[in-house]
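User: I'm putting together a teaching handout on how multi-component assemblies are represented. Below are the sequence lines for each component of a complex, exactly as they appear in our records. Could you produce the 3D structure of the whole assembly as structure tokens, so the students can see both representations side by side? Please keep the chain order the same as the input.
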Amino acid sequence: MKRVKAIKANTILKVIALIVPLLLSINSFTLASTPETPAASQSPKTEVTAPQTAAAPAEGAEGEEKAGDVIMHHILDNHILAFEPFGEIELPKIVVGGFDLSITKHVVMLWVVSAILIALFALAGGKYKKMTARQAPKGLTNALEALVEFIRVDVAKANIGKDYAKYLDYLLTVFFFILLCNLLGLVPYGSTATGNINVTLTLATFTFFITQVAALKAHGIKGYLAHLTGGTHPALWIIMIPIEFIGLFTKPVALTIRLFANMTAGHIVILSLIFISFILKSYIVAVVMSVPFSIFIYLLELFVAFLQAFIFTMLSALFIGLASAHEGHEEHEAGAAHH
Amino acid sequence: MEGLGFLGAGIGAGLAVIGAGLGIGNVAASAAEGVARQPEATADIRTTMIIAAALIEGVALFGEVICVLLALK
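Assistant: Of course. Below is the structure of the complete assembly, with chains in the same order as your input.
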């Protein structure tokens, strides 16, 4: 009992010893920044505030109008691979026939993700080849197997039905690709390739074409066209056909925007929380608000990274399943009208 | 008059959040009720709930993207 109290007193002392200088320094900063001589007071401030949150670039200390620029610079694609304290790599601009085909930050991230995925699954696959039938997988192989099983049983089989195996390759690829893209946005020097609308649009386009091909295969060209009428009386076709035709495209567009906006929004929120302390130029805000809140949002982002990868895969499977549903035609029509 | 764009963006973002909050709240409430009544159907209900929540969230995010475009223009 006594020991516990002693420890508590000790920690309280330590906390006070930490906080009092902070309070004092805030006072001195507010005093220092009141006179209108920014050049003189600026440089010590940048030095002191920068180590507080190592992830944020030091330019943020220059003022609130800079914060938005820094956030946008962080979110958007550009031609520089920045490794902040160690310098940066300039990527070449390649323009072919008016199209900008240059290798940008996000393209590099896509390659990194692909390389990691190939290495990871080559490793796991190699281990499977060596295993006997009665052996259980261990470590990395086991972790990957759990995810693969989850996608196979709970996503593909549950939504597509009996010929799910044909689409399993695509669903697994897209799940792991999006997951790793999302996760690499959360590590230092990484950037979220899925926070780029071009990447998500490409992924959604794959889903769109696979869905259409599945529908064509399942129903034939006649059945596919009959779907566009919504199974209604010919008098209503003039309304139904445009609606169903637009409905074809809203699904991939919704997939695109959902993934893009989710990944971008999380990063904007984290950076905004960090920049609050730079804008207000105080340690108290940094300790009480910026750091805890941004850690909270960061953990939420970790969850969102998994959730969005899952939702993209799940909805792709659902769309494919709806498009290629054989039995229960009426039910399918009702279901399609909702989505 | 230039400030009105920001005003519109702020109000729009707020309204989109209200809509999405009400929608996802309804979905979650019904799902919790369903699980309480039929605990054996938890897995199915969860899947349905996540899909519905994702669709609602998608609509809200359309709104938010438009608001961000308004604010950044």
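A couple of points students might notice: The interface with chain A takes residues 43, 47, 50-51, 54-55, 57-58, 61-62, 64-65, 72 of chain B (CB under 8 Å). The mean pLDDT of chain B is 87.
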